[in-house]
Amino acid sequence: MKKLVFLVYLISFSAFASGQLTTINPSITLYSEHYPNLHAKFKGTIVFENGSGTDMNEWKSNHQFFQCVQQMGSLFLYDRNGLGKSPPDLLLSRQHPITGKLVSANLLALLKQRHIKPPYLLVAHSYGAIYAGYFALKYPYLVKGLLLVDPVPKSFHFSKELMQKYQSGVNEATKQSASYMYKHYKGSEAEVTYQLLGFAESKRSIKQLGSINNSIPVIIISSTSMEKEKRIEEDWYDSQKQWLNHNPNSKIMRVISNHFIQLEQPQTVCQQMKKIIAAIE
User: For the chain, which terminal residue's Cβ has fewer other Cβ atoms within 10 angstroms, N or C?
Assistant: First the structure.
């Protein structure tokens, strides 16, 4: 009987999930999904920022995780340009790459056009921390909490091996149009090249904005696998602490897991989300 009630409860708010394409300006159209939950104590919206080169399925593919977070509040997921169901931004170029400022501005416009209710609890994975972090720094009045799942640090350098892997694509992106890049490269690969072109600018702008407001709790969940993979020159775990502020509920924890902690250890991420929601209610 309890299982039946739980199933009906899930269906009651999952059935109303609305996915749509939204044009926020003549060159930018984004696909997003909204999962309202009017029964949750948290009356804002939990907004998910995907990692580099991944779409919203990185949050939805583990059903245990997704069902758990659906119980905590209204959810908003979206695909950045060129990923999932969002068409590419064909105005990208060497002079106009992907940056924290660009992605955050697009997200804010999308949230406004879809009438997604603030305040927001931002949940970001990997390189998505650059975008969620910028958003929290730029618009602190809209953000109640920040949960970072194995985030890249605020300031770091990619390893030489990783840079060499993408160097030819980056070189082409400096000479070719975005139409060419998205035609000849996968959407994930094209995104990475434009992220790398805008990497220095993203770090610079985040540094200028300073530290995340102390009223916003920041919880970081760090994996052990990234320490071994050495994708950045700095120490992975210690550098992730750059995102922390002086909120009493801010913390970093390390778990034995691969990079996609939400898929391998969904309960761990879900538990930390419960803690951050308890802190902001």
Answer: N
How far is it, in rounded angstroms, from Cα 116 to Cα 89? 23
Q: What is the pTM of this model?
A: 0.93
* pLDDT tens-digit readout, 17-70: 779 999 999 999 999 999 999 999 999 999 999 999 999 999 999 999 999 999
Give CATH for domain 14-280.
3.40.50.1820
Please, is 200 exposed, middle or buried when counting C-beta atoms within 10 Å of its C-beta (0-12, 13-18, 19+)? exposed
What rounded mean pLDDT belongs to the chain? 93
Q: What is the pLDDT of residue 5?
A: 42
Q: How far apart are CA 243 and CA 252, in angstroms?
A: 9
Q: Is the pLDDT of residue 127 over 80?
A: yes
Dist CA 240 CA 244 (whole Å): 8
Q: Is the pLDDT of residue 10 over 80?
A: no
Whether residue 119 is preceded by a cis peptide bond, meaning omega within 30 degrees of 0, is yes
Which three-class secondary structure state does DSSP give residue 125? strand
* C-alpha span between 64 and 14 (Å, rounded): 14
Q: What would the DSSP string read from start to end of 8-46?
A: HHHHHHHTT-EEEEEEEETTEEEEEEEE--TTSS--SEE
* Phi-psi sector, 4: left (phi>0), alpha (psi -120 to 50), beta: alpha
- C-alpha closest to that of 151 among 135, 123, 128: 128
